[in-house]
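FORM 12-B: Structure-to-Sequence Request
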């Protein structure tokens, strides 16, 4: 579905990524993790064609939908207007949305549980509500590859769960291929088939989540001890940072 080869990307004349290579099969979910400023947004913008590589290639099969990290609009658009913008590629240059376009938007609003927001002003919504409207905008474009830049960054636990369930459902029931960036390894544990760990602009680890998402690799990625944590009574695990480790004394008390 997507194949990236020997990718080098510059911003402001400086190399940000160099020699990046990975691929994702159709129907997979790739989670992209890395420290602040390592280049996740740069990579994502290159995958969707907004940034041009200095060197290397990005090959994508199928239509791409994109959900940006933070989104504000300059006018008082309603949520319905915002989502309808996702139909643009189906309308032609001077086309206006018809009955079918409204039906498609309403279908996805119902699926996301945001039908009550239809007439609300987009800019007056909370970050989480906006995120769901932007996901609707991407889905109404009837994309095959959905790319999301930190889709859960502004969301509380309940809404994180909602978005993760939705992404999983889009993969399993609708066959979408998904790429998302995140600062939460648990989100990759929950839904990603594949991970890309961006250690630096030139170093990265990629592969199946079960093989690559380990406490050792995450400790390297974040330059901080990361422990695997199991949940009592649940066949689940996550990863937890060991903050302030050097300040914890042998008696277990911290300074
Ligand atoms: N428009 C720009 N011009 C020049 N340099 C830029 C520009 N945008 C980003 N950069 C630089 O590119 C590098 C990567 O930024 P990017 O936003 O891709 O990182 P990120 O991993 O997404 O960070 P975060 O986790 O904080 O969102 C940073 O050093 C940043 O300063």
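FORM 12-B RESPONSE
SEQUENCE OUT:
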């Amino acid at each position: 579905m997507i194949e990236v080869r020997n990718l080098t990307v510059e911003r402001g004349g400086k190399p940000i990524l160099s020699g990046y290579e990975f691929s994702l099969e159709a129907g997979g979910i790739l989670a992209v993790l890395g420290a602040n400023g390592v280049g996740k947004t740069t990579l994502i913008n290159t995958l969707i064609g907004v940034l041009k590589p200095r060197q290397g290639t990005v090959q994508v099969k199928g239509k791409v939908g994109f959900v940006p990290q933070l989104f504000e609009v300059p006018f008082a658009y309603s949520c319905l207007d915002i989502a309808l913008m996702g139909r643009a590629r189906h309308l032609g240059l001077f086309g206006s949305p018809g009955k079918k376009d409204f039906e498609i938007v309403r279908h996805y609003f119902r699926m996301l549980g945001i039908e009550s927001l239809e007439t609300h002003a987009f800019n007056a919504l909370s970050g989480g509500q906006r995120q769901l409207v932007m996901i609707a905008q991407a889905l109404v474009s009837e994309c095959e590859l959905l790319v999301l830049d930190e889709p859960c960054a502004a969301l509380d636990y309940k809404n994180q769960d909602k978005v993760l369930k939705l992404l999983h459902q889009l993969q399993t029931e609708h066959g979408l291929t998904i790429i998302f960036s995140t600062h939460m390894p648990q989100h990759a544990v929950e839904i990603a088939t594949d991970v890309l760990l961006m250690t630096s602009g030139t170093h990265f680890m990629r592969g199946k989540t079960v093989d690559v998402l380990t406490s050792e690799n995450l400790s390297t990625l974040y330059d901080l001890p990361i422990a695997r944590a199991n949940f009592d009574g649940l066949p689940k695990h996550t990863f937890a940072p060991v903050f302030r480790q050097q300040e914890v004394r042998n008696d277990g008390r911290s300074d």
